[in-house]
Amino acid sequence: MSQPTAHSEPPSAAQGGLNLYRRPLRVGILAVLAGITYPTWWTWQLFKFTRREGFPRASSFWWTLIPIVGVVMVWRQLDDLKKAAGSKARVHPKLIVALLVAGSLALQAGRLANRSLGGLLLILLLAFLLTGFAIYLAQRSITSYLRATYPLERERRLSVGEVAATLLSLLLSAALGGLLYYWTVADAGPVISYLPAASPVTDLPVSAGWTAYRNTDAGFTIQLPAGWASVSYDLEAQQEKPTKVIKFYAEANNGSANLVIARENGSPTSLDRFARNAAAAQVGGDIQLMEQHRVTLPAGEAVRMMFSETYLDADGVSVTNHYVEYALVMTKAFRSNGYLLRFGVLDAVTDEMQSTIDQIVSTFRVL
Known about the structure:
Blueprint: H1 24-33, H2 38-52, H3 69-85, H4 93-112, H5 117-149, H6 160-184, E1 194-195, E2 200-201, E3 211-215, E4 220-224, E5 228-230, E6 233-234, E7 246-252, E8 257-266, H7 271-282, E9 287-297, E10 300-312, E11 318-332, E12 335-346, H8 351-362, E13 365-366
Antiparallel strand pairs: 1-6, 2-3, 3-4, 4-13, 5-7, 7-8, 8-12, 9-10, 10-11, 11-12
Helix pairs in contact: 1-5, 2-3, 3-4, 3-5, 4-5
């Protein structure tokens, strides 16, 4: 009597990593469109997949929360996949991990860079594209491996977890976009090349001979002594670029000094950082920072800075201008308003001029 012939059976799928048997293109697209949370969900599924497949270095997803260690752990899962797949699928662990790291670095660059809203969005898009392409390559390898290992199984449809991760990412993206708009665009004011003179107000108490001004949009009031007045400011005539930060301009009647008030709003920042950035924007070429220290004004803590600028005029004569600048920061509702009060003085800052500057600055108030 003949012995029964043994037939090779397909591996059992009961404990297999079929949780990641998914269409690669769909996974890649969702990883880009839902780049905030979907990659985390997919990484969770990757570690579940390697454990179910019994890969030798399968480990816990929570290792990915540790910097550098997490990258090594992801590489190990993919390297085990490469060894297990053999000729069943092409796996590129180094390339995939390199793309994931590049996407993470792009996100960090977006956090640290001081850019416009458009620049931040481009950085985020680049990060999502790099991460999404990495996940697509990994998913393509996993799907090929599972198709060859479990030929009787089919690719999984869109799961509840995928839908939840996608919706959560879209909600967070909308919230993040609104916050970026709130920090960088909202209430910033139009770009101008000409600033008309401000009109005095009469509903504020002032000392004899002083004039009060209010800028409701920029959120401040200030008073000027006799001999000073707000006048129009032509940036093009001063060979300055159009801007949206200059909110007020005034001059002494004899032309010996002027005052520019600028306001910048954005994400919460400290006074020291705001003053440091303001000084860095000023210093360069013929302008040098001469002095910097903290002072207390009625409007709040401020940083007082003094700059000097030496250049040759049209007749070739050396001229030195001096600038006294006060930086203040007011933070509320998750946004900082930074104010710069910049006094330009011809020749030297005399004791009399410094006294006038101190008196003017003491009247500055934030609405």
